Automatic annotation (TrEMBL):
Keyword annotations: Metal-binding
The protein's name: Phosphoesterase
Domain Calcineurin-like phosphoesterase, residue spans: 1-162
Top-level EC class as recorded in UniProt: hydrolase
PANTHER family membership: VACUOLAR SORTING PROTEIN VPS29 (PTHR11124)
InterPro entries linked: Calcineurin-like_PHP_lpxH (IPR024654), Metallo-depent_PP-like (IPR029052), MPP_YfcE (IPR041802), Phosphodiesterase_MJ0936/Vps29 (IPR000979)
Record organism: Turicibacter faecis
UniProt record similarity statement: Belongs to the metallophosphoesterase superfamily. YfcE family.
UniProt keyword Metal-binding, yes or no: yes
Cofactor dependence: a divalent metal cation
Record-linked Pfam families: Metallophos_2 (PF12850)
Regions crossing the membrane: none
Enzyme Commission number(s): 3.1.4.-
């Protein structure tokens, strides 16, 4: 199974269209959205082509291929217009020899690690807008960065997980960082 991860779209029609274009180019089975889909948030600037209504249209067109969780900027009103579930604070994706815990990162993170994970599992999160790929005490911490509002001079990114290989890529498809999960 090939999974594509994106986080922190923050209502940008421009960057969401780029994410969906990459999803189609990558031919991933599912697009896993790690929260903060429609609203830009009070601490963020308005992103390029901020248009939540058009983002809703784009995402609903591929609703059967989306796995999503709630971010700190997402609300029940967002769920009323999105045609896929996105209100869970976390979820699990089972793989052959491990499980992925997906979450936004504001409730569960490296510093607030859930007791649900064991050696070999991965916490996949967004929220901080910075790509992270690391292993600590047998648990993997994976963050695709932000597709819309990256921080600390990182480019707009997304991630691919296939055959236990996690790649963070720029929105032109170039590998930015990678990690083999053992």
């Amino acid at each position: 199974m090939k999974l594509m991860f994106a986080s922190d779209l923050h209502g940008s029609y421009y960057w969401t269209q780029k994410v969906i274009d990459r999803f189609k180019d990558e031919r991933a089975d599912y697009l896993v959205l790690l929260g903060d889909l429609l609203y830009h948030g009070p601490r963020n600037p308005l992103p390029k082509e901020y248009n939540p209504q058009k983002v809703i249209e784009l995402l609903n067109q591929i609703k059967h291929q989306i796995i999503a969780i709630r971010g700190n900027c997402d609300s029940e009103v967002d769920q009323m217009v999105l045609q896929f579930p996105m209100m869970a604070d976390y979820n699990f994706i089972p793989l052959e020899d491990r499980k992925l815990m997906i979450t936004h990162g504001h409730l569960y993170s490296e510093n607030k690690l859930s007791q649900f994970l064991q050696k070999g599992d991965a916490l996949v999160f967004g929220h901080i807008h910075i790509p992270i790929l690391k292993e600590k005490e047998g648990i993997y911490y994976l963050n695709p960065g932000s597709a819309t509002l990256p921080k600390e001079n990182h480019p707009q990114t997304y991630a691919i997980l296939e055959d236990n290989h996690f790649e963070v890529k720029t929105l032109d498809g170039q590998i930015y960082r990678q990690l083999q999960l053992t």
